[in-house]
Amino acid sequence: MEGLIPVIAAAVVVSAIAIVLQMLILLGMYRTQKQLHARVTELLPRARSLMDSAETTLAQGRTQVLEVTAKASEVLDLAKSQLVKVDDSLIDVTNRVKAQMERIELMLDDTLSRVQETVTMIHGGVMKPVREVTGVAAGLRAALNHLVRGGRPNVSQATHDEEMFI
Question: pTM higher than 0.85, yes or no?
């Protein structure tokens, strides 16, 4: 057993050194934690003010977004109503243009028929007297020819005229 005591003593010494080292490490961790706590304590008021500012900004942003959304909705409603009015006006103008085009077409048809009637009347009024004058002139020419020849036609001329008549 005697050989075992130095081994146990060495183990106790190693354990004691390990415990002292652990204590030094824990002391270092304690000091580091204290420094970290002091820094965090310094930053905590800044973080709180930053959080308050962020909450205020977020609340203002929400109200502004709600206002913009409401205004956009109003603008869209107004645009929709204006578009309906424009559409109604366009339909009204289109209907009026169609009615005017129909009236113009009726007027053109009426004017063309009146022009046709006028041309027919002028044609009848001018051509009929021209034909009558031409007929009278042909009769006068025939009478003059008859008188120039001495009155009665000769037999060969009469036969020729009858053949042409037939």
Answer: no
